[in-house]
Amino acid sequence: MTYRFKTDENLPEETAVLIRSFGFDCETVREEGLAGAVDPDIAARCRVERRSLVTLDLDFADIRAYPPETTPGIIVLRPARQTPTVINSILTSALGLLGSEKLDQRLWVCDETGCRVRGG
User: Fold this and answer.
1) In terms of DSSP bridges, do strands 25-28 and 52-55 run parallel, antiparallel, or are they unpaired?
2) What is the Cα 54 distance to its own chain's centre?
3) DSSP codes, 65-104
4) Into how many domains does the chain fold?
5) Rounded Cα gap, residues 106 and 74, in angstroms
6) Of 4, 56, 61, 82, whose Cβ has the fewest other Cβ atoms within 10 Å?
7) Which residues contact 77 (CB under 8 A, 6 or more apart)?
8) Which structural domain, as residue segments, surrounds residue 31?
9) Predicted model pTM
10) pLDDT digit string (tens) for 34-88?
């Protein structure tokens, strides 16, 4: 399966570079002029574009507001320290799961110890 991602504005530019280094298509909220957009608008854009959102925003982990089955996938990163190195280390581990775990219609909440998957 080919994955397409969108990185939220709260992530460093290096995160999009990392995703692209895995061979995945990745756009950023900043590149699209969506910086400052409200969460529902970002979620709607991801649905229209069929892009999985990668974010630090815990609001996207609220399954009442963003039911996983209505999304192309959401990865919420929960690093103990929000440095590019720690963020990208967690994301590298998460991306390594794509061969065995489905992302579409799922919520992944990932930290240094692993990912919890909800939905579908």
Assistant:
1) unpaired
2) 2
3) TS-GGGSS-EEEE--SS--HHHHHHHHHHHHGGGGTS--T
4) 1
5) 7
6) 82
7) 11, 54, 55, 56, 87, 90, 91, 94, 110, 111
8) 4-118
9) 0.96
10) 899 999 999 999 999 999 999 999 999 999 999 999 999 999 999 999 999 999 9
